[in-house]
Amino acid sequence: MDLEIDIEGWPDGDWSDLAERAAAAAAAVAPELANPRLVASLLFTSDKRVRDLNREWRDKDRPTNVLSFPMVERVDLIHLDPHEGPPQMLGDIALAYETCAREAAAKGIALADHAAHLVVHGFLHLAGHDHETGETDAEAMERLEVKALASMGVADPYSATDRDTDHDKG
């Protein structure tokens, strides 16, 4: 998968490397993401920008930690020929700095670990996984996230934290 990464308003750090590693970890647990024809955009930005996106595309006038905008239906993604055809836009992901930083501080974890979780979470949404469709789907998505994050050396975000962290799919 080819990533287009923009970083605006986040502190110094290797956010591009983190995004690449999180995308690879997500592809390891959701192989449909490993298709070389896929292109995805990832925006590390401000609460204000995410709030604007959330309002425009989801009619929710508030920031959130991560937004995902899938551009391929899961069935089409699974059957996408990896060798023939032009690049295929998988979708967009946006992370809001202030919300992510506040959540990481409240959980007592590193911002980079929380951001890695949210990037993995966003990619799983782009792959068609959805925790909002029922408890079984939520548990399956959480298992994939935990496995992907473990491969990055990031602790299970669900082990001792609340499950009310807000993730949105656009």
UniProtKB/TrEMBL annotation:
The UniProt entry's GO biological process terms, in alphabetical order, are:
rRNA processing
Identify the enzyme class.
Answer: hydrolase
| Entry protein name | Endoribonuclease YbeY
The positions annotated for binding Zn(2+) are: H121, H125, H131
Q: Which NCBIfam families match?
A: rRNA maturation RNase YbeY
Q: What does this protein do?
A: Single strand-specific metallo-endoribonuclease involved in late-stage 70S ribosome quality control and in maturation of the 3' terminus of the 16S rRNA.
Co-factor remark: Binds 1 zinc ion.
* Presence of the UniProt keyword Metal-binding in the record: yes
Tell me where in or outside the cell this protein is found.
Answer: Cytoplasm
Query: Might you give the EC number(s) for this enzyme?
Result: 3.1.-.-
Q: Which family does it belong to?
A: Belongs to the endoribonuclease YbeY family.
Q: Which gene encodes it?
A: ybeY
